[in-house]
Amino acid sequence: MFQDLPPPPAVEQPAEDYEEVLPILLMLEPGPAQIVITASREPIYASSSSKSTTVISSETIEKLGPTRSVDILRLTPSLAVAETGPAGTQAQIRIRGAEANHSLLFIEGIKANDPAAGNEARFELIGEGSYDFIEIVRGPQSSLWGSEAIGGLITSRSHDRYTHGTRLATKAEAGSFGTLSGLAKLELGDRRTGLTMTLAGQRSDGIDSFGSDGEKDGYRNLSARFSGSVELSDHIQLETSGFAIDANSEFDGFDPFTFQRADTQDESDQRIGAIRAGLSIDPSHDWGFWIGGSALGSSNINLLDDTETNRTSAERYTALGMASHHFELFGASQSLNLAIDHEREDFRADDIAFGGFTRQDQHRDRSGAALEWRIDLPRDANVQLALRHDDFSDFADATSFSAGLMVPLADNLDLTANYGEGIAQPSFYDLYGFFPGSFVGNPALKPESSKGYDIGLRFDVDDFYGSLVWFEQDLDDEIVDIFDPTTFLSTTANGEGKSRRRGLELVAGYGSSRLPFDLSFNYSYLDAEGPQAPDGSRLRETRRPKHRAALHLTGKSGDLDYGASLAIVGARFDDDFDRFPAERVKLDAYALASARIGYELNDKIELSLRGTNLFDADYQDVVGYETQGRAIFLGISLAP
Q1: Quick count: other Cβ atoms within 10 Å of Cβ 258?
Q2: With the C-alpha atoms ordered 10, 15, 16, 18, is the resulting torsion angle positive or negative?
Q3: What was the pLDDT predicted at 535?
Q4: I need a labelling partner for 316 at 20 to 30 A (CA). Which of 131, 148, 175, 212 fits?
């Protein structure tokens, strides 16, 4: 059983060399955080990748202070966040206009999309205990990483460097809406071993997401993760990691008689956990091998008035072997990476409320092989090519290709260009249906496929940096829902025509050790449209703002460290299913402002004050579901 994503190796490089790495990232941290681990099949420096990449450093996260991943992801280019109510309720991420199940999530190197939840990543469950920093790669990446990587990749993980000795750090916070959170992190290490373990918990009374006078919808979340390595010899290293999340979320669902939104007492118990282990073998500087495996399990139980209504569960077992070869040819440094993997998924569903009439037990297999070729040309130009084939047990196979090019135009200016293809396999719901039996599956579905390109410019002049990227992407064979008004049954089918996504990403920032702060800004424009109708018209895709922007500032002055952010989300459309037929509605634009300030009492204790939604914006990400207003939190951190 092999992990999906090999962790990066230790990097031996003088500190002054890091200053030469092009700061193309939205949020930059000195040292190994400049290494991106999903822009290639092996870790590379951001400066040597043509892909649109964002790394949110642990330093930035600590200064801004958010306790949920969705609050961080709102600050990054071309990511649209849609939450169905307060914290803990379903949170969907759409990258560059792609669907919610078209983003691939890795946690501690393990593919974490939930096969028991329509292949979506469960971002509502990912809190501060699940990462030290977050990496995002935008654009189709299936040629390297396979299915679900149409919009891009999101990776959360621990540092790949470990403390020498023992270090225990803790923090706690309390504030509005009955919110409490706490975290403890233990780091152990010596010359040949390293281990990081984190335990975190959150709970909140929440709000009434349906209105203002009903029952509050709260949540709780307990998470744990670990990452470690042991050098077995000079050339062999054992690596392991894992995570576990146990959460309960209350939410307002639908009236069982009218099928309209109502102030119900719905809740969901969710558990997801995974473990992986592998061997990294480096017999020489020119060759490297990785072999290992991972196992993931998930469980989702839905209840109404404390009575179970349905449940789903799934397991994913993945095996991976990879070989890397580095060589010189015609004066250019080159590398070849060959990865072969096999994946098995098991899925179970039980509609307790309907006596198990539509109970199901399904499984499927997938095998894949990917070949990547990287060429580092003179004057820091480079080329990246990748080809992958996926063999599916239950539907049509798929082959995907990508190419990337980076060419310096001047000392401080680079041209980047990328072409990529992406695929997304049908979910178990799409193939086999969903309880209570009114949704019929379609085993004849084909995987969704996407082709796209981007072209951009990057600059780095003194302490200023930035990038400008234009992208276009088409989606074929989109899986759509079909309703039969005569039988009142729904099913799925591959739609005709292409869905189009195109847009612009602008990033600008300032970072200097001469001043006590760093400043970053980004703006994204998106034109996302569905397939062309017979009359030639196209509808804007739902829950995708045409305009969005974000600004963040972090810094330190004496005993104070601080961070502030502003996320601006433009108007977007949604479908109101309380009406028949469903009516398209427009959701208003909104701005979310947050800030945090910390004061060091001494070298071991820090007190903090944090505020979210400081403008007290009244907004909805999903039509009909209210979100939390202004909140204030007090915190304390203890470190050795």
Answers
A1: 9
A2: positive
A3: 73
A4: 131
pLDDT at 111: 95
10 Å CB burial of residue 31 (0-12, 13-18, 19+) is middle
Nearest to 479 by CA among 494, 498, 499: 494
Residue carrying the six token digits 């009359």: 535
Q: Tell me, what amino acid is at 199? A: L
Specify whether the CB–CB gap between 607 and 561 falls below 8 A.
Answer: no
What's the CA gap between 617 and 625, in Å, rounded?
Answer: 14
- Give the predicted TM-score (pTM) of the model: 0.91
Which among 427, 419, 417 is positioned nearest to 448, based on CA atoms?
A: 427
Instruction: Report the amino acid identity of residue 477.
Output: D
Domain boundaries in the chain? 165-198+206-239+253-638
CATH topology of domain 165-198+206-239+253-638: Maltoporin; Chain A (2.40.170)
Structure-block tokens of residue 326: 């580095």
The DSSP secondary-structure symbol of 100 reads G
- Phi/psi at 62 (nearest 5 deg)? -65, -40
pLDDT for position 165: 82
Residue 157 to residue 159: CA distance in whole angstroms: 7
Q: How far is CA 188 from CA 161, 169, 194, 329, 395, in A?
A: 11, 12, 6, 42, 46
Quote the pLDDT of residue 160. 62
- Which CA distances in Å does 531 have to 4, 379, 450, 478, 539? 34, 43, 13, 9, 8
Contact 484, 490 (CB under 8 A): yes
Q: Does the CA dihedral 87-93-99-104 come out positive or negative?
A: negative
- Candidates 395, 588, 554; CA nearest to 477 is 395
- Burial label for 599, CB within 10 Å (0-12, 13-18, 19+), is middle
Residue 110: what pLDDT? 95
Sequence-separated (6 or more) residues with CB below 8 Å from residue 530:
499, 538, 539, 540, 541
Task: Please check whether residue 413 is in contact with residue 458, taking contact to mean a CB–CB distance below 8 angstroms.
Answer: yes
pLDDT, mean of each 10-residue run, the chain (640 residues):
37 32 30 63 84 91 94 96 91 96 94 94 93 93 95 87 80 97 93 92 93 86 95 94 96 79 90 97 92 97 91 96 93 94 95 76 95 91 96 90 96 95 93 75 91 95 91 94 78 90 96 81 96 80 96 93 97 88 91 97 95 96 93 94
